[in-house]
Amino acid sequence: MKILAIDTSSSICSVAILEDDKLIDKNELNDGKTHSENLMPLLDELLKRNSIDIKNVNLIACCVGPGSFTGIRIGVASIKPIAEVLNIKVASIMSLEALARNVEGKETIVSLIDARNNQVYCGIFDKEYNKKEEYLADDINEVIAVLKKYENITFVGNGAVLHKELLIQNLKNVEFSENNNQSAENVGKMGYKKYIENDLKTADTVVPVYLRKSQAERLKK
How far apart are CA 104 and CA 114, in angstroms? Predict the structure, then answer.
């Protein structure tokens, strides 16, 4: 089964093609331009380089957030017409669960994504990448209070890099991943997991997941 995966939720615009959960190839770009300019050219070049017709894609895995509000909207809006035209299902993937795939074989994996102003998005997973509890979007100190119930945590994500010293000071036996980048490859791997679990959506039911309001919405309020 060929899976087309995209992730536009971070500063990296990333697209990948997988056969089941095995990567065939990927394209990534972080040049400061908007993802709306980069996404489709990256995808087109990836398909051509691997002689893959988009009609042969069986599933789309799309990162729906949290992360960049604009990037998330671009990604979701871009895959909807493709999925509808091809009449294929979509795996709706959280950036936090895809990020956790950077870590292997650890009992407790915590993904932290910086949301600015001391705020983070947090996901807590077991070694099979199943969510241990609901996602958090809160001040880093509030998140640390929740994490104190866990032992031997491995952290991943730019939020973990930013708050590393604070995490070390307040939690016991913590480790940190060396790979903290988000990627479409991991979105595709999680997409295959969702396919096995029959947890898929149709083009019209895929929606962005922000976990918190945008800065403009917060200021307006």
Answer: 22
The residues, ordered by sequence, that sit 6+ positions from 206 with a Cβ below 8 Å of its Cβ are 62, 64, 76, 79, 80, 83, 90, 92
Start-to-end CA distance of the chain, whole Å, equals 46
Residues 6+ positions from 210 with CB-CB distance below 8 Å: 65, 66, 69, 72
For residue range 99-114, list pLDDT tens digits in order.
999 999 999 999 999 9
215 pLDDT above the threshold of 50: no
Q: Residue 113 has what pLDDT? A: 98
- How far apart (Å, rounded) are the C-alpha atoms in residues 168 and 176? 10
Q: List pLDDT tens digits, range 44-101.
A: 999 999 999 999 999 999 999 999 999 999 999 999 999 999 999 999 999 999 999 9
Which pLDDT score is estimated for 17? 98
CB 27 within 8 A of CB 15: yes
Angle value at C-alpha 19, between 18 and 22, nearest 5 degrees: 70
